[in-house]
Amino acid sequence: MYRHIMSPGWTLGWNWAKKEVIWSMVGAQTTEQGDCSKFKGGNQPHCCKRNPVVVDLLPGVPYNQQISNCCKGGVVSSWGQDPSAAVSAFQVSVGLSGTSNKTVKLPKNFTLLAPGPGYTCGPATIVPSTVYLTPDRRRKTQALMTWNVTCTYSQFLVSKHPRCCVSFSSFYNQTITPCPSCSCGCQNKDRCIKSDSKKLSMVGINTPRKDNEPLLQCTHHMCPIRVHWHVKQNYKDYWRVKMAVTNFNYRLNYTQWTLVAQHPNLNNVTQFYNDLLMEAGPTGNVQSEVLMQKDKNTFTFKQGWAFPRKVYFNGEECRLPPPEEYPSLPNSATTESIMISAMAASAFWFLQVFIW
């Protein structure tokens, strides 16, 4: 729901059941043609491989190579972020496949890379044939056969460690709860770079690798992404949270990223969107504030209630600190006294600004 496919985009593959060939494609292309030597003359199939691998076309290709929802360079938005951009489509003309729904056999072994591993695809299953309307919407046509393949993502197939972590702070406690040490594993500890290292001025240091290997800034948590949740202010009917997302990877800009937080005062899920999170460095962070109306039945600052239950970055769950380390209320504090203190501090700050 909240995981999108970013550059360099999706790659889709499968195995033909018989000796099918792809005569032509619009909206996408295969990465290899394969051996088409048995087809004589100038009319050659687009792909003769038993296991074709398909990639999306880039934006701006000629109009006669396009269809609806194609040609995005494989970049697909998440459904929760932008349903209109969450679809990618292409069209294939297949030969040697049979002429009826009894002679056409289902392809096997579907694979989806987006843009790396993590997806596991189930078998193709036959579903009711897709019905199409003519442009004047007065006539229906029906596909010869329609099948569905469902691919499920698991971040644990990619790595046994998370790829983001969360830290906490609050206005009512000077303690900052950091991300747990080695939240994302410390396997990159020997290859990380200190923020003041002279290596950062080297040409090509920020160039992405084909294997997507990160170049991380040295931290105790060793995560590419850290999310910081700060309980900033308390009012009579509202409370305010400031969130900051920091990128510690020198080789990756995050485009169209999503941040999802689960909290009882957020109607379960609230989404945060931003076009670009820059690579590690001075500009490698974004910040946002959220003003929430208090739920009178559940609102409290006690026992870590003000902090999220789960946080997801780009659809992957981030590691949270253990609950016993959350910033706690002072022993004698109450919600009312905290609210009065916060209002007094705000008034004092305003007075300073006014005098200045």
Q: Secondary-structure map with pairings?
A:
Layout: E1 11-15, E2 21-26, E3 28-30, E4 53-56, E5 91-95, E6 108-113, E7 119-121, E8 125-127, E9 131-133, E10 140-142, E11 146-148, E12 151-153, H1 155-158, E13 164-170, E14 173-177, E15 225-234, E16 238-247, E17 254-262, E18 270-277, E19 285-293, E20 310-313, E21 316-317, H2 335-355
Parallel strand pairs: 13-15
Antiparallel strand pairs: 1-4, 1-6, 2-5, 3-4, 7-12, 8-11, 9-10, 13-14, 15-16, 16-19, 17-18, 17-20, 20-21
Structural descriptors:
356 residues; mainly beta; Immunoglobulin-like; 2 domains; five-stranded mixed sheet; four-stranded antiparallel sheet; 2 helices; 21 strands; 7% helix; elongated; disordered C terminus
Offer a concise description of the structure.
This protein is mainly beta and 356 residues long.
Question: How is this structure best described in words?
Answer:
- The structure is a single chain.
- By secondary structure, the chain is mainly beta.
- The protein has two domains: 11-156, no CATH class; 160-355, Immunoglobulin-like.
- Helix content is 7%, strand content 31%.
- It has helices at residues 155-158, 335-355, and strands spanning 11-15, 21-26, 28-30, 53-56, 91-95, 108-113, 119-121, 125-127, 131-133, 140-142, 146-148, 151-153, 164-170, 173-177, 225-234, 238-247, 254-262, 270-277, 285-293, 310-313, 316-317.
- The strands form seven sheets. The protein has a five-stranded mixed β-sheet. It has a four-stranded antiparallel β-sheet with strand order 3-4-1-6, with no helix packed on it. A four-stranded antiparallel β-sheet has the order 18-17-20-21, with no helix packed on it.
- A hairpin with a 6-residue loop joins β9 (131-133) and β10 (140-142).
- It is elongated, with a radius of gyration of 26 Å.
- It is found in: Cell membrane.
- Pfam families: COB_C, COBRA.
- Keywords: Glycoprotein, GPI-anchor, Lipoprotein, Membrane, Signal.
- This is Glycosyl-phosphatidyl inositol-anchored, plant.
- Residues 163-273, 283-327 form the COBRA C-terminal domain.
